[in-house]
Specification:
This protein is mainly beta. It has one domain. 8% of the residues lie in helices and 36% in strands. It has an 8-stranded antiparallel beta barrel. Strands 1-2 form a two-stranded antiparallel sheet. It is globular. 31% of the residues are buried. Bound molecules: manganese (II) ion (MN). The site of manganese (II) ion has 6 residues, from strand 4.
């Protein structure tokens, strides 16, 4: 039935996914261009335990969204994510992004996340992957620069973009450092660098109380932790 609607232009491969909450195998249709879209994300999490969204690849989405999540895990860090190829390409930034062009921030590439994750704010329970509190620290749209689509920029290891968020604005470059490792277990190291434009802020300070709250709900990390919101519904993920 569904196969009749498949097109020949893309590689369409049904994947089997074990959904722990049902204990049965369910089929999902995963259209992929490259990489292991969301397999690693799903493998690392137990969705009966974590309120994080299961999500799926949404190749039809053409929106260019970015999100920065403040993640109070075993070590506080910020997760920077960009919609590319129907998923959120992701980097963990230990010190967080900076609007100061002279501060290059280490950004370690992490597994792709589903688009639904851009609205995820809550508490990942103890014992689960990434246990700790997650805040939507900033979000908005981005415009790829350089005349290249974002997937090609990602593939070349250099992404030039203009962010239109509430905290982050203007031009940024994400650039991979050094050679790509043959060892897939080794995480890619990138740098996030603010362009010298009218939005640059040499006095940028992540510790400022101005940057303390969620752009989604206005809550602090402490307030999110004590609220313990319910799992995001399929409706809310749209
Ligand atoms: Mn994280």
């Amino acid at each position: 039935m569904a196969s009749a609607s498949f097109t020949a232009v893309e590689t369409v491969r049904p994947v089997r996914m074990l959904l722990p909450e049902h204990g049965v195998m369910k089929h999902a249709t995963d259209i992929r261009m490259s990489g292991t879209a969301l397999e690693e994300y799903h493998r690392k999490r137990r969705f009966t335990e974590t309120p994080e969204p299961v999500g799926r690849v949404r190749r039809s989405s053409r929106r260019c969204i970015f999100v920065v999540q403040k993640h109070d895990a075993s070590r506080l860090h910020y997760d920077f994510r960009l919609t590319i190829n129907g998923v959120l390409a992701s980097w963990a930034i230990p010190k967080g992004p900076s609007m100061n062009p002279s501060e290059k921030r280490l950004a370690v590439r992490t597994e792709d996340h589903p688009l639904e994750y851009a609205q995820f704010e809550g508490v990942i329970p103890a014992g689960q992957y990434g246990a700790g509190t997650v805040m939507v620290w900033d979000t908005g749209t981005y415009k790829p620069q350089d005349g290249l689509p974002p997937d090609e920029q990602l593939a070349r290891g250099k992404i030039d973009m203009v962010l239109q968020g509430q905290k982050l604005r203007g031009g940024f470059t994400l650039v991979q450092t050094g050679k790509r490792s043959d060892h897939s277990s080794q995480k890619e190291r990138w740098l996030l660098i603010k362009h010298r434009d009218e939005h640059a802020d040499p006095s940028w300070d992540m510790e400022s109380p101005r940057f303390d709250r969620s752009v989604l709900t206005g809550r602090s990390l402490k307030e999110i932790e004590s609220d313990r919101p319910k799992k995001i519904s399929a409706r809310g993920a749209r």
